[in-house]
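The instructor's notes for this session suggest beginning with a concrete chain rather than abstract definitions. Hand out the sequence below and ask the class to guess, before any prediction is shown, which regions might be ordered.
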Amino acid sequence: MWRKLLSIVWIGTLALLWGVGLPSPLMAGESSLIAVEVKGITTDPRGEMAPIVLLEEKAAPRRVLPIWIGLFEAQAIAMEMESVVPPRPMTHDLIKNILASVGATVKKVVVTELRNNTFYANIILQMAGNPKEIIIDSRPSDAIALALRVRAPIYVERTVMETAPLQLEQPSQELKETSIIEPYGFSVQELTPVLAELFHLSSPEGLLVADVKAGSVAERDGLRRGDVLLQVGEKKITDPVSFKEEMTSLAAQKSDVLLQVHRKDGIFHLLLHAPR
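After discussion, reveal the predicted structure:
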């Protein structure tokens, strides 16, 4: 009984935070929804440095929908994408924990409407043992930050994707493809100015570790996703292509690699042992 009461209290709290939540079917059919994924965070191309989250269509033609968001929400999204764990739960981490504690599941989040140049979204919840869906009105940025934390799918209403005044047929030039450093088992991407600002770095120098393969040399030697690589040996790291060439050459020589790494707790050196 107390658990059911607690669930009602917490869901009511979320409704006050994000809008009115009512048990209801999804307003549009599933066929009207376009599945998207978060391509990344960039900045306003007009030089205003306002953060933008890019939602890319999963299927062809893979259009990219930019949504302007706040700095705090951009940081929350970027931290989750780069697997940065805060020392204490941030707002979206707290909401994730609350939902888990009361047995609520985020089924999906949907960007539902574009009205007066403002995007709207819904968070679709379901309580354990109850087939009814609860729809919570939300800002897209909050919905996306929560969806990333609970691994919930993200959708955009087809009418929103097709009528948005600005779409990108190709991702922003600021979002570079990752380079896979195969022998050592990790990948890197360019550190953009907005990511540098979000992670409180003094400059966008170096490369961001985008992923570390489980069981790889990089993982065993302590490299983490979200680390920033500044130097390899005595050479400053400038771009993914030249870094990949350098690392491939060192791997062929069976050489250990000394990396200068920036992590939240400072700058240090990390030794990657030669792949066997």
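Then share the key points. The CA atoms of residues 121 and 208 lie 30 Å apart. The longest helix spans residues 2-18.
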